[in-house]
Amino acid sequence: MAKLIEFLTFPFKSLFSAGKGYKTYERFIEHSYDIGVNSLPLIIVVGFFVGLVTTVQSFYQISNMLPKYFLGLTVGRMIMIELGPVLTALVITGRCVSAIAAEIGTMKTSEQIDALRVMKVSPESYLVKPRILAMLLSLPLLNAIMITASLLIGAIFAQVFFQVNTDIFFYGITHPFYPREFLVSFVKSIFFAFWISSAGAYFGFNVAGGAREVGRAATKAVVVSSVLILILDFVAAIIFF
Amino acid sequence: MIKVINISKTFDGIKILDDISIEVSGELVAILGPTGEGKTVLLKIITGLLKPDSGKVFIDQGETLGYVFQHSALFDSLTVEENIRLPLEECSCLKEKEIRERVKIVTNMLDIEGSFLKRNATKLSGGERKIVAIGRAIINDPTYLLYDEPTTGLDQVTHDRICDIIRNLNKPGIVVTHNMDTIKKIGINIIYSLKSGRLSLYSNHGLTKE
Fold it and tell me: Which domains does chain B have, with CATH numbers?
């Protein structure tokens, strides 16, 4: 129970830890580049295949039963509300959260975190705050890019292979249009970003030992983040729908 | 003044430090002892990184500590210069020009300059890392310096160079080591011995004649 409370309060303590604002900003930019820009190719590739698979599966389910614009409606809703934010967060967990845990864990075992404390620098402010902020910026943007890539490739594939005109496909996506559905996607991304970056940093911070423990911390961070994404996704589904 | 009063610390049922008391004011003192006797634990308690089971540490108001870690604890993603200036960048109100001047003074003291300052910390040898760690510890001009095995694992030339640096800095503090040669080279007079968790005065006139 104490560990759970520690985990839940860790990101808030980190965000409110004292540190020089402009130094935090510099590191925030650096981490945003690493999490956001460097993840772009992977997110686009994943988005392409998510779009393709979703389009093929949806067409198989609705063909000859429903009007063609239902393909856009189904693919659009699935990707925007569910697959976009969840898969983006899971991909970023694999790529970045494990790296956050491993990097901070290595710093812990090599006494770099102790060195910060001796210098009267808050390790939470130096290491955790900019990473959480960078994730809060990057994940919703990556989600938007994943959704865009998926829908574009889905529309092209539907036109070429299923003779569903792109106008009809996009008509399905936008009719009916509920801003809430659009909003949910980004609200989920923000919550995922907050908790997965916190999990990475938390498990890195709590490494005690050597290389094996750093590896275990990275694994724990990925496992806990993945489960958190699914739990938060369920909570969001209950709250918003 | 650093005042350590009746410190005890136990790890896994083994008493590492047993009722340790020591005072350091204007001099560099050495704590001599074999590996695993709790020298690092004592320094970490003094710096506040570890909490003692009992006892207290007092440091006079306005006085500060610099700590040279046993394994240097440099930031691998930073260059030599960035490592040295980090404490000033993060904790001082100095302007960039003043920081640069301070870094220049310290790097001159340590006799490091030019392209070496731009090297990444991962590209440094053990001895070079120690020198950079000393630079980082002194950049804030602390009142006391604590050195944790500053010469372990170094060749004789680098060992002597680091001893010269420590002697020339002429800062009060504590050097913990298992190497008598280090104490001789630095020229420390007050030497304590830490064995089986107990601290005792070993010599107050150095090791030069022994």
Answer: 2-203 (3.40.50.300)
